[in-house]
Amino acid sequence: MFMNGLLLDETADYTSNGTAITLTSGASVGDEIEVVKYDTFSVGDAQTQAQADTRYLQTSGGTISGNLATSGTLTSTGLITASGGVAIGGTGAVNTLDDYEEGTWTGTLIGYHGNPNSHPVTCTGHYTKVGNAVHVAFNFENVDTTGAASNMWVTGLPFTSSGPYCIIPCQMSVAGTFGSTSPFGLISGDICYFYYHVNQSSTAAVYHNAGSGRYIRVSGTYKVA
After folding, report:
1. SS3 210
2. Where are the domains of the chain?
3. How confident is the model over 154-171, as pLDDT tens digits?
4. Confidence of residue 153 (pLDDT cuts 50, 70, 90)
5. What are phi and psi of 160, to 5 degrees?
6. Is residue 119 within 8 Å of residue 173, measured between CB atoms?
7. 51: left (phi over 0), alpha (psi -120 to 50) or beta
8. Using CA atoms, how far apart are residues 178 and 218, in angstroms rounded to an integer?
9. Which end of the chain is more exposed for a tag (fewer CB within 10 A), N or C?
10. Distance between CA 23 and CA 8 in Å, rounded?
11. Is the overall model pTM greater than 0.70, yes or no?
């Protein structure tokens, strides 16, 4: 109990029976009396530190087992892992990005009727996989293909293609023989075959033009399951 801002002593300045308060000395006109009562209370849904740590994400990281929805911008300075995939532009499997990966792989240059004398002639390719789309890039730089004969292709693609054949751009420097049209890569399985257009209705395989100082550069995207 306070009078004019001063805390009163319960025994010396007033008495209380729980429902009424009696001042030892009566108050004067204009005195300000303030009574503060503290009652028992309970905290609803209180959690221990261990329970809170399990329920809420920590600043050092954590795992969300359900769906995470945001109407604004989600920013992270670290790694966010979504084991069930991330839905983009809608819901359902068709809108779920469930895989991202990048790395390297080893491509081997093959000849249908004879491999290069220094077989295997290899290169280190690079890939980025986003969902079911795989972007690959590989270069055979200044290699010796002496001994290679007939159709040419590269084995060892990092993922096996599915669905229709995928065509990817290709550039060669005297590595193969083809007509007046540019060669291209055709992805089937884990192999990149090389073809060129004979005319508007047909294609033919690119043959090795074996020798030293050969260059083959390929970069494109194909589809996997």
Report:
1. coil
2. 2-34, 101-223
3. 999 999 998 788 999 999
4. very high
5. -85, 125
6. no
7. alpha
8. 16
9. C
10. 10
11. no
> Cα–Cα distance between 103 and 223 in angstroms, integer?
17
Strand partners, 3: 6, 33
Rounded to whole angstroms, the Cα distance separating 202 from 87 reads 42
Burial class (CB in 10 A: 0-12, 13-18, 19+), 212: exposed
95: phi > 0 → left, psi -120 to 50 → alpha, else beta; which? alpha
Place of tokens 């007033």: 14
CA gap 137, 220 in Å, rounded: 7
Name the band, by pLDDT with cuts 50, 70 and 90, for residue 151.
Answer: very high
Structure tokens at 211: 């020798």
Query: Are 173 and 145 spatial neighbours (Cβ–Cβ below 8 Å)?
Result: no
CA distance 99 to 41: 51
* Residue 70 to residue 74: CA distance in whole angstroms: 7
Q: For residue 99, give both structure tokens.
A: 């895989």
Buried b (16+ CB within 10 A) or exposed e, 56-80: eeeeeeeeeeeeeeeeeeeeeeeee
Rounded distance between C-alpha atoms, residue 168 and residue 191, angstroms: 12
- Using 50, 70 and 90 to split pLDDT, how confident is the model at 208? very high
Name the nearest CA neighbour of 119 among 108, 127, 134, 128. 108
**pLDDT tens column, 33-74:** 999 887 777 777 788 888 888 777 777 777 776 667 777 777
